[in-house]
Design a protein that fits this description.
- Helices cover 23% and strands 20% of the residues.
- By secondary structure, it is α+β, with helices and mostly antiparallel strands.
- The strands form two sheets. It has a four-stranded antiparallel β-sheet, with helices on one face.
Length: 131
Amino acid sequence: MDLIVANIPQNTRIVELKEFFKDFLKDATFELVRLKGKYDAVLFAHIHIPKDRIGIKAIRKLNLKLLLGRRVQVREFQVRSASHDRRTVGWRNKPWSNAERRVAERRVVRVNSHSEDPVIEAYMNMARKSP
């Protein structure tokens, strides 16, 4: 089972993670995922525990516990698409049970007008403003 440890302090080292997971160390591998660039900030930790039963125990015991004075989230790693978007391959065929967040198409300019054709109304407004 792969676990993600989120909300960890930026100065966290592997040694401190191993101490945090001391009861679940058997055959576990640890990796700190860092932000590339000049800041070199730690984003999260990725931990692989071979047995799912031990991984579930680790989640139950360590979720929302303090690591270096900060509450961390321990949860199972979920594989997501690279774009992290529902518009992936075949997204049109998948049901979407939630309400749509967009009210209207975002590429359409809304005109508060009582006219049936907003383009004609815009031209009429331009004609009125000309000297």
